[in-house]
Amino acid sequence: MSVTIKDVAREANVSVATVSRALNGHDNVAEEVRKRVLGVADRLRYSPHHAARSLSSRRTQTIGVVLPDLYGEFFSELMRGIDVVARERGLHLLVSSYHGDPEEQGAALRAMRGRVDGLLVMSPFVGERGFLERSLAPALPAVLINSGDADDHPVIRVDSYGGARAMVRHLVEAGHRHIAFIAGPDGNFDARERLRGYRDALAEMLPDAESRVLPGDFDEASGHRAGRELLAADARPDAVFAANDMMALGCLFAFSQAGVRVPDDIALAGFDDIPLARYVHPSLTTMRVDIAELGGAALRALLQGNGNGSVTALVPELAIRESSRAVRR
After folding, report:
1. Hey, what CATH topology would domain 160-290+317-324 get?
2. Residue 139 predicted with pLDDT over 50
3. Model pTM?
4. What class has domain 1-46?
């Protein structure tokens, strides 16, 4: 038999009305009581009746979007793509971010219960045992963005591994032999795939070359730090490949401050092709990802009910600009 709201109320030792208010995120519930109710609901795998309906019923006409952050051009472009499709279908969006904290993300996902008809989730915690099962209502449709494979949910992601290999190939063909890499956050799926692509391509195309990886956090500040670190080293690379454009732009600023010319002294490349990449000087070579389409494709997959476990990978395109042109050495 399915679990009812009365079962949750009895187990949590509160009224049915309190359970309803806690699950729907109302403010007039003590935090301790809310946590107890959510814990019992998770343990019993309770799903509110309207959240358990199929997405096509459109009971709330609202889609939940849970992202690591809302800052930066990547996330603004992603949200733009989601919003375009939502407006076409007459849907509203409920958006939340969790800044890389698994407990905050779990709370954000649970707070969506009863408020939305489906979820778009970008999470580095998908691979952790039981994380989604604890956080998502069992019958609530969800699509994962830029994550690893998930048996219980469809995944829409960028082919970050293939894109990184393509960028290394471009830099090698341009004559560069010492290629450094500015990595992204350790727990990020895209970051891991881009690092793996860099290392595999380097080992295949330049078997005698050593990989040189600097830590980064997908923001301008970490790219700037990496650029300063490279300039302070005894041996400078021929080229720098940053795992995203924001770090590449931070690195470019560090080079500019030091009077290092790009690409004459050091070539530079990024990944994502954020709108700013083509307007800096020199314009940035990057892997072009249609970020807005990534968001739009995720929402369309949710609305179409793509099969659980299905994976759709968007293939990035090499955009060669001034920052990586071949130079005579």
Report:
1. Rossmann fold (3.40.50)
2. yes
3. 0.77
4. mainly alpha
